[in-house]
Amino acid sequence: ALPRLRRVHLHFCVLPLPSPFFSPALRSLDLLNVGGWKCVDDIIDCFQACPLLEYINYHYDLSDFTDFGIGQPFDSRHSNTRSLRCVKLSQLKELKLYGWLMQTVSIFAYLDYPSTAHFRMSTLVPSRLYHATGRMTEECSVLYETISETLANHFGPACAAGAHFEEMLIEEMSMYLPR
User: Fold this and answer.
1) Rounded to an integer, what distance in angstroms lies between the CA atom of residue 60 and that of residue 66?
2) In contact, 55 and 82? CB cutoff 8 Å
3) What does 5-29 look like in DSSP terms, one character per residue?
4) pLDDT tens digits for 126-159?
5) Which residue, 85, 82, 91, is CA-closest to 56?
6) CA distance 158 to 178
7) Predicted confidence (pLDDT) per residue in 58-96, tens digit
8) Which of 53, 94, 138, 171 fits 122 for a cystine, CB–CB 3.0-4.6 Å?
9) How far is 83 from 81, CA to CA, in rounded Å?
10) Distance (Å, rounded) from C-alpha 56 to C-alpha 26?
11) pTM value?
């Protein structure tokens, strides 16, 4: 690990796992079309390695939405060994997530951050999840149910405990249509 590293900006590359870039001193993380995660546990391991993060900007919009750039599909199933919101990021001030539906929701679901943090999430939905008529497939309906459950599980207990979120933006989910 790089114990004094405070800021990381990675663009269009593949992370080796475990990665030396995720260090305990890291404060700012900017990932633009960065691959390497094979499953939810990989995401959790990376973020747990840097508990002092203040800024996260994740952007992944490469056309191969099932792949984080490693030649293998991303397994977005819930972790069997870790609970939702298990990554404590008590210093987080800003969280920006933009990318394919399940990868973005997978990152969001495992982060626990202060209600004062600014949160923005935009997702892309693969066209294969829609019928030619524009109606959602069953797989897409299940994904939206998962997202609704994730959002309710994330914000519900915090609000019930008295948290007052200052800013949250969840933008319209865009359907990706290949050219």
Assistant:
1) 11
2) no
3) --EEEEEEEE--SS-TTS-TT--EE
4) 766 666 666 777 766 767 777 777 778 777 877 7
5) 91
6) 39
7) 998 876 544 444 455 677 778 889 988 899 999 999 999
8) 171
9) 7
10) 11
11) 0.82
